[in-house]
Every structure is written in structure tokens, then in C-alpha cells.
Amino acid sequence: MNIALFDFDGTITECDTFTPFIKAAIPRSRMLIGRLLLMPSILAYRTGILSASSIRQQIVYIGLKGFSKTCLETLGKNHANEFLSSVIRANALERIQWHLDSGDRVIVVSASLDVYLRPWCDNIGIELICSQLDNKGDILTGKYHEGDCTGAEKVRRVESLVDLKAYKKIFAYGDTKEDEALLKIADEKYFQWEKI
Q: Where does the record place a coiled coil (predicted)?
């Protein structure tokens, strides 16, 4: 049996899915205040000074701290059903199905949020490793549970869940620098759908 590790945003999808979810989930008044508070960080991100991981974590803290987990999960299911279905790459679905038909274990490994990735992955019958939001009861703390699942953290989480030596071949699919560590552990790797 082989194992296939897929990044999500930009690999399975044609675009980022985190930003559209945040824009849909955060109330307009909080969004306006958040833009003002985050303007220096947004500029730092756009000029390459601040990483995508750092800006995501700041957005989550300002935008979702104090938010109801139950409410966010409902919004996540809607995002999975309505938005994700419109941005999934046909070739990605075909490749996932090819792996499933071959009897391979398929895992999405993403920095995006479980509240919308979990319903999507459950729907097509594949596993998920991703960023999760921390909560106390039904209230979000504004922080990530176990940090942002990006870069080397993707590999750490895969290796904590899976004995990679048990698989004949490791496939990995990614599209950005955040996926480089994941691609390095693979026997067969694809960057932006080109075999490397």
C-alpha cells in the first residue's frame, strides 16, 4: 500500500480558501476594526517581511477570539458545501480517486482550518491533518490548538500519526514554499502538479 499526502489550498483547489472563509465568518464591524489593527501586518506580509503563517494567526486572533465554536462549525459546513465545491480542481479529484482506487491511504495536510476541511474530507472519504482552533467550552480563544500546520509542522504531524516506513511509496502534492518539507519526505513529488 502507498500513501498520498495532499496540500489543500492551491493544490486541491484553484485558490486560497482561508481568506474567503474568514471574510464570510467574521461580522462586518469586527472586520473593519480588524483591518485597521492588522494594516501594518498586512503590509509586512505583502512585502515579504511577515510569513503567511504569522498573518493567518493574527487574523484568527483578532477575528475569531470569543466566537462560538458551534456557530463557526456551522459556517464551516456551509463553506465546504457552497464555496469549496466551486474551486476544487478536477485533476486533483481525479488524482485523489486514482489513489483511492489503487488502495492507497490519502491524507490532506493543510494549514487551513478543520471547521471547513473536515466536512469536505469526510464527504469524499479521506483523512485530514490541519490547523485547528483552540477553544474553552464553546468559545474560541483566538489561538491555534497545537499551532499552525505549515512547513516543517506538516511533516511533524504526519510522522506523529503515520509510520511512513509501513508504506511502499510516499506521494506528496504541494504548490508553495510552505509545502517544501512535505515534498522532501516523498518518493514521488508534485509541485504545482508538475512531477519534480
A: none
